Structure formats: C-alpha cells, structure tokens
Amino acid sequence: MTPALNSYVMLSASLFAIGFLGVLLRRNTLVIYMCLELMLVSTTLALVAFSRFNGTQDGDVFVFFILTVAAAEVAVGLAIIVALFRARQTIQVDELDSLKH
Amino acid sequence: MEQIAFTLISLFTLSCAVGVVLSKNAVNGAMCLLLCLAGIAGLFIQLHAYLLAFLLVWVYAGAVVALFLFIIMLLDMQGGRQLKIKGLQGLAGVIAAALLVVGLNLLAVRGRLESAPPVGHEVGSRLSLYSYQLLTTYLLPVQVVGFLLLIAMLGVIVLSRRVDAVPSK
Question: Which of B7, B57, B99, B103 is the most buried (most CB within 10 A)?
C-alpha cells in the first residue's frame, strides 16, 4: 500500500514549519540560511508528490528549475555573508543593528 | 511495506530537520541538513522521481552543503555561541511555526486530496520525457535560468572582491 498524498503534504508542511521556526529562533546568519534552504527543499517535496499523484510531469520540471535557482541563490547569499563578515566582523543578527534608530 | 518505509524515512527527515534548528554548533547543523536532504532524496525515490533524487543529492548534498561547511570554516564559526532563546521572541517563534503547521495541515486534510496515484503511469521516471519537456515547453525558462546562473556568477565575483582592491581617489 502506497502512502497517501496527504501524508506527503503534511510532511512537507511540517518540514517547512521547522525551517520557519529555525529562521525565527536562531541568531546566527549561517544557520538561518540553512533553515531557509530547508524550507525551499520541503516545498519541492510537495511539488514532486503532487506531480506524481496527478500523473503529469510539470511539477518535476518545476523542481528541476527550483534546484538550479537554489544553487545560484546559495552562492550569492554566502558571498553576501562573507562580505558582511569582512565589513562588520560578526554574523550574529542581534549585533547587526545599524538600521535600528 | 511502502508505508513502513515512508514512515521511517519521514521520521528520520523530521528529526534531522529539528537537529538543524537546535544544534549549537553550525557544523553539526550542516551535517544534519545533509542527512535531512538524503531523507528527502529517499522520498523522491519513493515517488518515482529518480532523476530529481539524484540531482538533489548532487546539487544540494554535493555542492550546497559543502559550500556551507567551507564558509563555516572560513569564518571560524566552529565554537559558535550558545543557543540562547529570549523569552518573548522564542514564544512568538514557536507560536508562529505551530500556527503555520496547523494551518497547512488543515488545508491538506480539508482539501480532500485524491490519494491514489495513477497506476502504470510512471511519468516522472522517464529521462527522455524530461529532456522533451525541457527543450519544447520549457525552452524559455531553461534559457532564463542559464542567464540567471551567469548573473549569479558575476555577482559573486563582484561581491567577493577585496574592498581595498578598489583604487581610492
């Protein structure tokens, strides 16, 4: 017996919520970024499951593009974090408070 | 059988995701992320998306997590600071995440999703269908994504240039 579509969607939602919790709770920019990646991957799981249960391939191709964009995004994001560290000597978000009045 | 495998893999993936959020050391977090991605690749295989499982391991586990580890070591975050959660912020975060999971799960349950996969119709497992779709229906997105990768590469080169390399007047 194959697992139902509902279980895949619930798992995807739970992974998304865990990543969201990490983004809200953590103070280290790198860990926040890892949690963002987790959220992104959890949505691809839902897309693949919908694609499989729908009998079409559009979701799979969409995940293909998401993976490509995620790779570019990670490269740019980590470059920004390194530039930030060079400028401020810290990547803890509670110490990066230049915009606070 | 398939249900048992799904349950085991999803429990493994969820616990690794919790590990990413709660690990004090950023390196441990990256390792948990790696295991979590491996679990999701296993779920992709269960959904007959073999190419995507391979690509997920290749791109994410191979490139992205390695890049994360590289940056963690470059910035010397090894020791890290203790995970301290401030009272109100932590409470707000937990409530927000709980609301999100309840809302999305209600949507999934109330939405009356069709739960039987089409039999003998394994679209996602054929490689030739991917190439056909990518070169016909999705030709423009492929070119846009290629251009995006080029722009990202240029952006990273500009961002990672040394600041004092710019001649000052």
Answer: B57
Give the torsion sign (CA, B100, B106, B111, B114): positive
CB atoms within 10 A of CB A92: 14
Looking at residue B47, what DSSP letter applies? T
Exposed/middle/buried for residue A70 (C-beta within 10 Å: 0-12, 13-18, 19+):
buried
Query: Is pLDDT at B119 greater than 90 in this prediction?
Result: no
Report the complex ipTM: 0.91
User: Who has greater pLDDT, A94 or B43?
Assistant: B43
Distance (Å, rounded) from C-alpha B159 to C-alpha B162? 8
Mutation pick from A9, A11, A85 vs chain B, by most beta carbons of B within 10 Å, is A11
At B120 the three-state DSSP class reads coil
Does residue B114 register a pLDDT over 70? no
